[in-house]
């Protein structure tokens, strides 16, 4: 009689839950909408996300159809319900900061990640894929691109300012952040121009499949 394997093979993972966190106005909603709509996306006027909401996107990964459930959240943590019920069952995190505003990188990302780890009952934080997105990458400095005049800095000028966060700083942050977790990855992306947005979300989903199928320990 053939012996049964000690552990049955895991069922393939079809539904993947991604959670997008980051400070106010870093571009979380815009990145998600760019991922959903591709080249049909146009930048809407800013409308803050209230609390949390989710969208679905169907993709084919590793030759199988899968559904990504992507949770968009408010950058204002006070809007999160105290029990953080929507953190339950999250397979991977997408942490977003604005490359032109260093205040939205560390320690803001530390705060969002700590809040997640404190509430999510994550079975093993070493096996949680975390994709960091530095948004507004590679865009022209708007103040340079226009008149080049100097003077009192307006909000829009500060938003179009120089890149403030270097790749090496983010990679160093990723390496040290959760002991034993090698599943941090960094993408420089732009919701406005579309660069690397798909790469970042699909990397998160693929990393979930790697973990689920035991390719990462
Ligand atoms: N130039 C540029 N502007 C962007 C980009 N992504 C977002 N924005 C703008 O930044 C502002 C905030 O974008 P949202 O996507 O609403 O930011 P959010 O992180 O969802 O904000 P909250 O929901 O309030 O937490 C909007 O005015 C966007 O048009 C980008 O890649 N480039
Ligand atoms: Mg939003």
TrEMBL record:
> Which SMART domains does this UniProt record tie to the protein?
RAB (SM00175), RAS (SM00173), RHO (SM00174)
- Segment Disordered: which positions? 139-166
* SUPFAM superfamilies according to UniProt: P-loop containing nucleoside triphosphate hydrolases
Composition-biased stretches, type Polar residues, lie in: 144-153
Alphabetically list the UniProt keywords.
GTP-binding, Nucleotide-binding
Q: Which InterPro entries match?
A: P-loop_NTPase (IPR027417), Small_GTPase (IPR001806)
Q: Name one GO molecular function term.
A: GTP binding
Regarding protein family, the annotation reads: Belongs to the small GTPase superfamily. Rab family.
Extract the PANTHER family matched here. Answer: RAB FAMILY (PTHR47981), RAS-RELATED PROTEIN RAB-7A (PTHR47981:SF20)
Protein name in UniProt? Ras family protein
């Amino acid at each position: 009689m053939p012996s049964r394997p000690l552990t049955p093979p895991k069922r393939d993972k079809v539904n993947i839950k991604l959670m997008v966190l980051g400070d106010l106005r870093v571009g979380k909603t815009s990145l998600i909408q760019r991922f959903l709509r591709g080249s049909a996306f146009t930048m809407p006027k800013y409308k803050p996300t209230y609390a949390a909401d989710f969208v679905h996107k169907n993709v084919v990964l590793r030759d199988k159809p899968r559904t990504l459930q992507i949770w968009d959240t408010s950058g204002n943590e006070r809007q999160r319900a105290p029990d953080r019920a929507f953190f339950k069952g999250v397979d991977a995190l997408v942490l977003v900061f604005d490359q032109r505003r260093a205040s939205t990188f560390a320690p803001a990302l530390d705060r969002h990640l700590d809040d997640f780890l404190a509430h999510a009952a994550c079975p093993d934080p070493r096996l949680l894929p975390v994709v960091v997105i530095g948004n507004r990458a590679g865009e022209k400095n708007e103040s340079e691109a226009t008149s080049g005049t100097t003077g009192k800095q307006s909000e829009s000028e500060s938003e179009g300012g120089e890149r403030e966060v270097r790749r090496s700083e983010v990679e160093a942050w990723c390496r040290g952040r959760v002991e034993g977790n090698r599943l941090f990855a960094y993408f420089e992306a732009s919701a406005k121009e579309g660069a690397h947005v798909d790469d970042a979300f699909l990397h998160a989903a693929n990393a979930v499949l790697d973990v689920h199928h035991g390719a990462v320990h």
